Every structure is written in structure tokens, then in C-alpha cells.
Amino acid sequence: MPQFLMRGSDLENIYECLKGMGDTSAALLLLSQPEEIDQCFQLTPAQVSAPYATKNPVSCSSTHNAEIFEVVDWPLETNPVDMVHTDALKIASESCGFWDTFPDAQKNRLSKSEFNYWAWYTPDKAAWARGERWIRCDAKVGKFKSSTSWPPYA
């Protein structure tokens, strides 16, 4: 079966078409699908620190600095943006398991080609209101001034 890479604008166009045809259940199902593991992204520093995930994957064979390594269900009904940040981060950290998946990440801190940190994203407010409850876990390649500096400068 052929696979197609669909960008956010493609999904939005299909959503509008289905909605216009009166098939709102199919339209909502289309938009409720979380990101897929192994999608890759070339993110700017602003996109990395954005509150919600960008939806513009690139081919993983091209230059990229982020890759989805896990998508899991958010375990609570409370939206993470409504929680104390450290509490939400603890849940995300346990759910994503970056340090177990990439045990060499800490010693790769100064690498410019190996995953060396991670970020997590949840559905935006509109998607949350539709009932989406997932965490997207991204492995990232960042440039750090030292092994203990934060955040990455690029």
C-alpha cells in the first residue's frame, strides 16, 4: 500500500472537505490522530520551545534535528498546560522514557549529530477540547556551550 506524507495544511484541507460533505465524524477522526513515531523535523529554536508541536515533518533522509520516538496517552484528564509545570514534566518524563531509550544522550551533550536532549508536546487547546489526550516525545539534537548548559543555543 503506498504511503503519503501529509503536512498539516493537507490534513486541514481534507478536514474542511469532509466537514463540508457533512461527514463530521470522519473529519474529527482525521484530526484526532496523533503524530507518528519516526517522523522527523527540522525545527528552529522558536519551534522547539513552542507550547505545541509543529506539524511539518521532513524526510528523515534529509537534514533534521528532531524525531518522534514515542507517542503515548496522557494519563490524566487534566490538561498539562493547567498543571504545575514540574508535575506535568515529571509525568511526561516517565511516559516518554528518553534516558532509557537514548542512554548515551547525556554523554553526547556536545555532539552536533547525535540526539542529546528531548522535548514533549501535547495537543493544542482545540485538539484537547475535541478529546485528544496524547504526549508526543521528540528526541533532539541541540548545540550546547558546555555539557551542563541549558538551553541549547541552536
Describe the structure in your own words.
It is a single chain. By secondary structure, this protein is α+β, with helices and mostly antiparallel strands. The protein starts with 7 loop residues before the first helix and ends in a 14-residue tail after the last strand. The chain folds into two domains: 1-31, no CATH class; 35-140, no CATH class. It has helices at residues 8-20, 24-31, 45-48, 85-96, 98-101, 125-129, and strands spanning 40-41, 66-73, 117-121, 134-140. A four-stranded antiparallel β-sheet has the order 1-2-4-3, covered by helices on one side. The chain contains six helices and four strands, in the order ααβαβααβαβ.
**How many helix segments?**
6
Tell me the strand percentage band.
Answer: 5-15%
Largest sheet: 4 strands, antiparallel
The rough form would be described as globular
**Alpha carbon gap, first and last residue:** 38 Å
Structural class comes to alpha+beta
Please give the number of β-strands: 4
Please estimate the helix content: 25-40%
Number of domains: 2
Reading side by side through the largest sheet, how are the strands ordered?
A: 1-2-4-3
If you compute it from the alpha carbons, what radius of gyration comes out, rounded to the nearest whole angstrom? 17 Å
The parts where pLDDT drops under 50 for at least 5 residues are: 1-13, 24-32
